[in-house]
Amino acid sequence: MIEGLLGGLSGLFTLHNMLLLVLGCGLGTFIGMMPGLGPVTAISLLIPVVLTLEPASAMVLLAAIYYGAMFGGSTASVLINAPGESSSVPTTFDGYPMAKKGQAGKALALCAWGSFVGGTIATMLLMLAAPTLASWALTFQAPEYFALMVLGLTAVAAFAEEGGALKALLMTVLGLMIATIGTDIADGVERYTFHIADLADGISFVLLAMAAFALSEAILAALRNQPVSEEAKKAARGDVGSLKLTKDDVREVAPAVARSSLIGFVVGVLPGAGATIAAFMSYAVERNLARGARREEFGKGSRRGVAAPETANNAAAGGAYVPLLTLGIPGSGTTAVILGALVALGVQPGPRLFVDQSDMFWTVVVSMYVGNLILLAINLPLIPQIARTLAIPERMLVPLILFFCLIGVYLVSFNAFDLWVMIGLAVVCVGLRLLDYPMAPLLLGFVLGKLMEENLRRALIVNDGSFAFLWERPVTAGLLAVSIACLAAPVLARVFKRKG
Amino acid sequence: MTSFRTTRRAILRGSAALAGASLLPGGVFAQEAIDRVNFLVGFGVGGGFDQTARGTQEALQKSGLVANVTVENRTGGGGSVAIAHLIETAARQQNTLMVNGTSIVVRSLNREFSQTFRDVTLVSTITAEVFGLLVAGNSPHRDIGGLTTALRANPRAVRFGGGSPRGGIDHLAASKYLKQAGVDPKAMQYVAYDGGGRAMAGLLGNEVQCLVMPYTEALTQIKAGQVRLVAIMNDRRIADVPDVPTLADAGIPNAVLANVRAFFMAPGTPQARVDAYANLLERLIATPAWEEVRARNGWNMFFRRGAEAQAFFVQHERDIRALLVEQGFIQG
């Protein structure tokens, strides 16, 4: 392994490869920041160029764009409440509230450090355990995916405090319902589309997130028309608060980052899940684990709530390389395009890649370590600059958010119908928000609901309609048991407290 | 029966047509010189149709035929948003080639949308991804004979998987194989996955025992020995996988199916312009730049233009309708 790392170092430290790495990191960060522009678009555009490179150089560049985009995705989430790409949606839950409290700098710094740690830990795990993990990922089948999604949904319980349980539950159900719009994956039957072709592919996740957060936030801001607050004035002067993380910050966030790195990587390895699910899972876990005052902070600017999803989505990007390299199976659109490029370059993904293409493998691994350092070096000093461009007075911020939402959603599909859907949903969300309904459970229900239904139905087909897989498969049963424990724990704790 | 393979004949015919054209007085082609192409894709970046568009874009630019080539992904409604867009804005789509193919036929037959391939102008077909039967590397079914025997004994002995829903093209391909092999397709257990990649994970994890999908999507795993391509649904063997028998070789006749990709223009495009684009494509596929893209993607060439292409689509629609009727998805 030492030999491999040294070989990788010498492979990477050529002027050519280092330039590509820096270029990839910079480009990735930029793409991640722009709502609507995702890594898949950028990588597809670059394919003809990439194919003229050596395989190792090409992979260094493509990987850097991919994890660079995960790195940059947090910026817009924190500053304007519009996620740069879908795996940064949970970052808006607490990132934007932090920014509103004048702590945008700290939130972005937490994102940067979390991304760095997540990316680095994922690279280590990729280096150490890729083949073992790949065969494990294959044992993860429809019943396990179903149970994993159920576990994710239990996070709703964490959103349900102070009599808000019913509201959180209702929003989750609404999310599950919206997820069923479109053509179902098993039978190809259209549901709730009213024969409108534009609805046949369902509602896109980015669209819903934009409507629920950014757009409805902008509308609410316009409706409130409050006098400019002290924080907003500060923000307008370009004062984004301190970037420095105090000892208390580190102590608060470190365990969350460690957990999220692991969760993110493991979920990223599963070809049926991916970075968005990973980010939601880690957010949910942190919210479930938090106790007392820490828990109250969630949704209002929790430091853990910002760091966890950003750590997890970067770790998931690393995890996605496991099935990609060892099985040739892409888990997302982005990795599918990367796989296409790999094959075109004559690299044969498979269990023997580590032997047959060891030079390339180690160069890419080393480039991931170095790339994460570069991203940190690019991003940290840039935070005040980026924040300043966006931290403008609210009366100008509102049109700017509107602009980014509309452009962002249009860029995904080039379909004007989607804009109307988004505006309609945003209006509904404004009403719900005025009535104090939480938005996060809506997105949670939506993002998990689709996969939960799909995998449950697949599991039922495979098992001839029998539900026995729920308790006969150890991993499924284990995940479901943990889900029940998550739901029961707060209730039991309350009961015992009363008795004690 | 149509055959899908890399062919030089079409290419030669194309150059002959061009040579003839240049002799025409007045330079008919000079008037229809093509200096820009816009590919309209009704599906997301990274998918099969998108790859066809971007591969053709790359070859057009590298061969020096056209420099100004763009790709426009207008997604929604399983491609119908792009089709509707092409029809509604036909007047300003004179440089647009929409990429579609078998998908438009299946979806309009399933009444997912109202348009058919007749509502747009077919320019030419370009490639055909031949369906193949894949089993895991460690499968007890060593070859197509073993697989078929097992299925004849018990149609539920093998669970099938594919990247499309029931009634989609992968499911229809599996049905066609079973029916021609004398097994009732309605007894088949078919598991639908969201795309070929996840279906492959299902096969490697033994959630399903046989995948029916365009074999080019699985070349990586075939080369690595993780899966075995036991048969192809073509009427002759293919040079890229010379050892793989066709279903006909295994005594299962008339089980031929491919996912065809084709280019369409807006309705009402003048015939001269359609011909000019067909000529351009015909010239393109004779270039080394195209061959490079084709070989890299493992595409099976299937270039048909004009009346020949139209006739193919009419037959293709008839074949798929028959499969859908047999499966009870639509009424005859």
Short description:
The complex is a heterodimer of chains A (500) and B (332). Chain A is an all-alpha fold and 500 residues long. Chain A has helices at residues 2-12, 15-33, 39-50, 55-72, 74-80, 89-100, 104-139, 142-153, 155-159, 165-179, 205-224, 230-236, 247-269, 275-289, 292-297, 303-319, 321-327, 333-344, 353-356, 358-390, 394-413, 416-434, 440-462, 469-472, 474-499, and strands at residues 182-183, 190-191.
Topology:
The complex is a heterodimer of chains A (500) and B (332).
Chain A: H1 2-12, H2 15-33, H3 39-50, H4 55-72, H5 74-80, H6 89-100, H7 104-139, H8 142-153, H9 155-159, H10 165-179, E1 182-183, E2 190-191, H11 205-224, H12 230-236, H13 247-269, H14 275-289, H15 292-297, H16 303-319, H17 321-327, H18 333-344, H19 353-356, H20 358-390, H21 394-413, H22 416-434, H23 440-462, H24 469-472, H25 474-499
Antiparallel strand pairs in A: 1-2
Chain B: H1 9-23, H2 28-31, E1 36-41, H3 48-62, E2 68-73, H4 80-88, E3 96-101, H5 102-109, E4 121-136, H6 144-153, E5 159-162, H7 169-180, E6 189-192, H8 196-204, E7 210-214, H9 219-223, E8 227-232, E9 258-265, H10 271-284, H11 288-297, E10 301-305, H12 306-326
Parallel strand pairs in B: 1-2, 1-3, 5-6, 5-7
Antiparallel strand pairs in B: 3-9, 4-7, 4-8, 4-9, 4-10
Helix pairs in contact in B: 3-11, 5-12
Describe the structure.
The complex is a heterodimer of chains A (about 500) and B (about 325). In chain A, about 75% of the residues lie in helices and about 0% in strands. With about 500 residues, chain A is mainly alpha-helical. Chain A has one domain (about 1-500). In chain A, strands 1-2 form a two-stranded antiparallel ribbon. In chain A, helix 3 (about 40-50) packs antiparallel against helix 4 (about 55-70) and helix 6 runs antiparallel to helix 7. Chain A is globular, with a radius of gyration of 22 Å. The model of chain A has no long low-confidence stretch (mean pLDDT about 85). Chain B is built from twelve helices and ten strands. In chain B, helix 3 links the parallel strand 1 (about 35-40) and strand 2 (about 70-75). The two termini of chain B are about 20 Å apart. The relative contact order of chain B is 0.20. Chain B folds into two domains: about 10-130 and about 260-325, D-Maltodextrin-Binding Protein, domain 2 (3-Layer(aba) Sandwich), CATH 3.40.190; about 130-230, D-Maltodextrin-Binding Protein, domain 2, CATH 3.40.190. Helix content of chain B is about 40%, strand content about 20%. Chain B has helices spanning about 10-25, 30, 50-60, 80-90, 100-110, 145-155, 170-180, 195-205, 220-225, 270-285, 290-295, 305-325; strands at about 35-40, 70-75, 95-100, 120-135, 160, 190, 210-215, 225-230, 260-265, 300-305. Chain B is an alpha/beta fold and about 325 residues long. The chains are: A mainly alpha (about 500), B alpha/beta (about 325).
